[in-house]
Amino acid sequence: MSALNTARSTAFIRLRQEGRTDEVARRLVEAIELGLFAEGQQLPSESELALQLGVATVTLREALVVLRQRGLIETRRGRNGGSFVCAPVELPEALLLQRLKDISGPDLRDLGDEHMAISGTAARLAAQRSSPEQHARIAQHIDALHSAQTRQARHRADARFHIEVAAAAQSLRLTNAEMRLQSEVGELLWLDAIGGKDVSLVEQEHRAILQAMVNNDVVLAGALAEAHVMRGIKRLIGLRLELLAEGDETA
């Protein structure tokens, strides 16, 4: 199974039987926003998606309504009809800055703690379990980050690196958790306000994590991944404090 298919199957990891429409919609939104489905690509059929998620078809249909309302998919009728992924829309930086301001300090710190735990554990397990083929696929996402020209493209390449490291750890739960975190906070890390156009440091950190995995260095891989996440969260905390201070000055 390819890394892309692995990530997609993780997006559709079965929910609890009481899985609600908003949870189904969240999983699908994550998969689309993180680039697991390409623009114009057709989603699996409603019956197939409902089966993969372990929910009723009516719940899946309600979730697809949410995606259509958000402009993430369009539904085409007829013989070759179905749900197709729309072109991604990059959110205005002002909207992302407001989102960052709305996150409380303790919540942002907790997000960082959770992300360090997930990414660090995934890197350690990947250093033990990953294959040369997986290393090559992870390296492709580092190269994609190097050549990315937009905030959305940088976010996707960065997110896919972390998701594929978790997939290389051979843990569906870790991969699903990484996807959720990347969807929740990942795009904020590429705000121009914290140097989102300068990818060189992140690229170097990614390559160092990958090299530790290739060398089967469990301790170093985990430590590098945790430090990488911590630096990103610290930048966000610093920016949030600046935004709040600016708001106080203009009040």
Automatic annotation (TrEMBL):
Pfam families: FCD, GntR. Residues 18-88 form the HTH gntR-type domain. It comes from the Bacteria. Keywords: DNA-binding, Transcription, Transcription regulation. The keyword Oxidoreductase does not apply. One of its GO terms (molecular function) is DNA binding. This is GntR family transcriptional regulator. It comes from Pseudomonas helleri.
